[in-house]
Target: ABC transporter substrate-binding protein
Amino acid sequence: MAFISVLLVAGCSSAAAPATPAAATTITNCGRQLSITAPPERAISMEQNATEILLSLGLAGRMAGTSYQTDPVLPALQSAYDGVPVLAKLYPSREKVLETRPDFVYSTFTSAYAPDAAGPRADLAGLGVPAYLSRFACESQPQSFTFDGIFAEIEEVASVFGVKDRGVALVDDQKARLAAAPSSGAGASVLWYYSGTSTPYVAGKGGVPAAISDRLGLSNVYADASETWPAGNWEQIAARDPKYIVVADLTRGGDGDSAQSKIEFLRTNPVTSKLDAVKAGRFITVPGSSLDPSIRSVSAVELVGAGL
Model:
């Protein structure tokens, strides 16, 4: 894929070309003013999606730590990832975060700034550490996911680090791939099955699956839900009878949450085994991390489009 070449170029450029010097800047992020005195040199990414954005921008050498890996790292990023200290399997504590002497913290989930994790963003700011949060996870009024929104986030982060050109190149590649992805859903119904067996958690409105459904012309059977990831039930799912089932492959939950284990459940459950999609094997597997706003969201479009 062209994306891989962009990643490799970005990774090489991190060693060959230093960040463009930048004056102190202030940005508005999720309603909070972040004062950034210089391009960060000791950044911490709080979970995989933030990590892969920084690595894709060739910034491994300017990362003091990472945490909360949910899927195997993209192959093109593996060598760069191997050089970044892993602070915790899940979220590191506030003490662990401060121990690394960070000059920037980046998270794609509000939970990273809980008291038992990195701590509130205001507290970090009081210590002189800008704490960036994805626009899709703001503490109040998070934005609904759009591809333009994740592209804007990538470019903003690149600008903060003084590597604006890398951000533009990465986004241009993502836009080209998105434009080339098929859009042949023709209104076919789809269930986005994220996790759970006794209670299935599925995709509703406002998230990455909703944007992918719109892009591919699919009809999400839970589009009427008021939440991004509502709890469904199998009888209701059977009544809605999706033509396709997109299954999230989650490694963080262990074998019980892998795509294969969920597909086996659907095949043996008395209710879901009768679904045409299950009997016909119309499953499309995607990495769980690609269904959260990330560098992988465009690849999820490609995977689902290819599986229709």
Notes: The chain has twelve helices and twelve strands. Residues 1-21 have pLDDT under 50 and may be disordered. The chain has two domains: 20-178, 189-307.
